[in-house]
Amino acid sequence: MATRQTQTYLRALFDDRGIAPRRALGQNFLVDLNIHDTIVKTAAIEPGDVVLEIGSGTGALTALMAGRGAAVVAAEIDPAMAELTRESTAGLPSVRVLHLDALRNKNNLNPLVLDAVQAALAAAQGSRFKLVANLPYHVATPVIVNLLVHPTLCPELMVVTIQRELADRFCALPTTKPYGSVSVLAQALADVSIARTLPPSVFWPRPKVDSAVVLIRPDPVKRAAVGDVAWFQEVVRRVFLHRRKSIRHALSAMWSDHWTKTDVDAWLALRGLSGQLRPEALDAEEFVALAHALGDVKRTLPSTAADED
Ligand code: SAM
Questions:
Q1: Is residue 132 in contact with ligand 1, taking CB distance under 6 Å?
Q2: Atom of ligand 1 nearest to the CA of 161
Q3: 103 bridge partner residues
Q4: Contact present, 237 and 185 (Cβ < 8 Å)
Q5: How many C-beta neighbours within 10 Å does residue 118 have?
Q6: Which domains are seen in the chain, by residue range?
Q7: Cα-flanking dihedrals φ and ψ of residue 191, to 5°?
Q8: pLDDT beyond 90 at 2
Q9: pLDDT tens for each residue of 98-116
Q10: How far apart are the CA of 23 and the centre of ligand 1, in A?
Q11: What is the pTM for the complete model shown?
Q12: Nearest protein Cα to ligand 1, atom 22
């Protein structure tokens, strides 16, 4: 049964179980009854969807999505919460609760999570894969980025509640303060927007900062233009290591044995770019073009030189 999760309900439930919210695990539960509905509507949850929910907590959103006909893979690290998710979704055969850390490490999702998603997709021909979650703040970036760049299991849609500051980074435009590697990566591979901002008062316990529901719609056309996603990610990462310096500096540091700053200036000029530009001045499309051009250079280098930096 879907529980209408309010602060009163949660306090009573936690008292009964002798547990308390664990700040270190990002346990801020949504207690505004409308927000779960907004998330479900924004994600257009319907039969045929396979939803990955990372951080299912008490299972309120899980049950709501399963009630709409979705198959849900719910991953939860806290054993008490995993148990509560199981209770909230008892009798809903389309829900699979995994008690585990959704990440194997910063750069990889837990393979058991991916296996469970793959199995759910295989069980329902033609189903759509979505990530829908109120993400714990400390794993939000790696979860989103790892799924976005995943070669075979990139969701069709992500609707995620994250800290406002991070949401702003995903949506930021060039030359603005929040613009960085996450903005470039997300915008090169997907359409990204903030569906709704959320004040601390919609959570219990209240976080110190605002949050936002973010809509990320991966775009197959953009992905095809990027081509080698791993290389693109590598270029963006390396260039933004030198965010406060010029592009010339970033590129010469990339392969210092291969070219001097003067060579880099000439190479950039051929592409209509000034070496004085800072990485944050390039938009996602310009990064895509830069990565392709750098890929051509890389192919001319001996393999040891290509891995410099
Ligand atoms: N889904 C609930 C809601 O909407 O109210 C709870 C969301 S709460 C922000 C985040 C949840 O993620 C917590 O239940 C926490 O235990 C869980 N969590 C934290 N780190 C995790 C990880 N690495 N893997 C899986 N779950 C995690």
A1: no
A2: 9
A3: 109
A4: no
A5: 16
A6: 7-219 (3.40.50.150), 227-306 (1.10.8.100)
A7: -95, 130
A8: no
A9: 999 999 999 999 999 999 9
A10: 10
A11: 0.95
A12: 101
State whether the beta carbon of 56 lies less than 6 angstroms from ligand 1.
yes
Cα of 54 vs centre of ligand 1, distance in Å, is 6
pLDDT tens string 240-260:
998 889 999 999 999 998 999
Q: How far is CA 206 from CA 20, 196, 210, 283, in A?
A: 14, 18, 10, 35
Structural element, H or E, at residue 186: helix 181-189
Ligand 1 proximity of 101 Cβ (cutoff 6 Å)? yes
Torsion of CA 17, 21, 22, 28, to 10 degrees: 140
81 in ligand 1 pocket by Cβ < 6 Å? Answer: yes
Positive or negative: CA dihedral 188, 148, 171, 219: positive
Q: At what angle do helices 247-254 and 229-240 cross, to 10 degrees?
A: 120
DSSP 207: P
Ligand 1 centroid to Cα of residue 243, in Å, is: 32
Residue 207: how many other CB atoms lie within 10 Å? 18
Beta strands in 82-205 (DSSP E): 95-99, 103-105, 108-109, 128-134, 157-163, 190-198, 203-204
State if residue 21 touches ligand 1 by the CB under 6 angstroms criterion.
no
| Residue identifier of the C-alpha nearest atom 12 of ligand 1 | 55
Q: Which residue has the tokens 């004085």?
A: 276
pLDDT single digits (tens) 121-147? 999 888 999 999 999 999 999 999 999
Interval between CA 102 and ligand 1 midpoint (Å): 10
CB of 252 within 6 A of ligand 1: the answer is no
Neighbouring C-alpha atoms within 13 Å toward the C-beta of 250: 25
